Each structure stands twice: as structure tokens, then as C-alpha cells.
Amino acid sequence: MIFILTARHFKAHDTLKQFAEEEAQKLTKYYEGITRVEVILSYDKPVGSIKTAEVIVHAKPNHNFMSKDSTDDFKLSIETAFGKISTQIKKYKDKLTDHHIAAKAVNNLENNVNNHTDVLHTDILHTDIQHTDIQRTENTEHKSNRNTAGK
Q: What is the pTM of this model?
């Protein structure tokens, strides 16, 4: 992963660079396809101004995430901007996963159960028909035996 930090109109302190890079490394636990992270830091006035952190994350396959946050502290701006990016990455990764796999498995299971039930139902009907035929045959034989016995 390539990390680029740009400080507009000032030179960023090493601890600020290290903090931003650590935040960028945390993103890899959410998505391994991250190729490049750019952090752009800027401010309005040197004293008592609003500090802005803009984070751009480039990921495979050709997808970009962007977040921008402004507070009165660079570390807080960086942290909240990366928090927004991690939310975007989680939503993106959630879209990539196929949630219908479980539903498909349940449907297949239901279909298998229904097929077995249909087979059992057909077997029961077939058995009932055979049983009825046997009873009819026995009744006919019994009637014919009665008729021949009486003559």
C-alpha cells in the first residue's frame, strides 16, 4: 500500500505523519484491496483556525473512497476522516458479499424436503391404491365363493 501525505502551506510534523500512516494501516483489516492512501492536510489561518483532513483511498477493482473532516485539531480531523472511510469500506465490502447464499441454501433444503414429501405422498397413494385393489379382489373372491357355495 502506498501512503502519501500532503501538507498544504505548512510542513507536517513527523508525529502527525506517523499518526496518519497508522490510521491508514488500520484500513487493511477491513479490506485488503487497498492500493493507495492519500491524506491532504490544510488549514485556514496559522493561529486558531480550522484544520481540515481529506482522505482519499484507492482500492481494487478501480474503486475510490473519499472523506473530509474539519476540526480545530489535525489528529482529530484525521481520525474522524478515517472513521468515515472505514464505514464506506465496510458498506462496500458488504455489497460485494452475496447474502443470497443462505437464502438459496434454505430454498434448496425446502425443495429437497418437498420432493421427498411428494415421493412419500406418491408412495402412500400408490400403496393405498394397491391395498384397495387387493381388498376389491378379496371381496370379489369372497362373493364368488358365497355364490358357488349356495348352489
A: 0.63
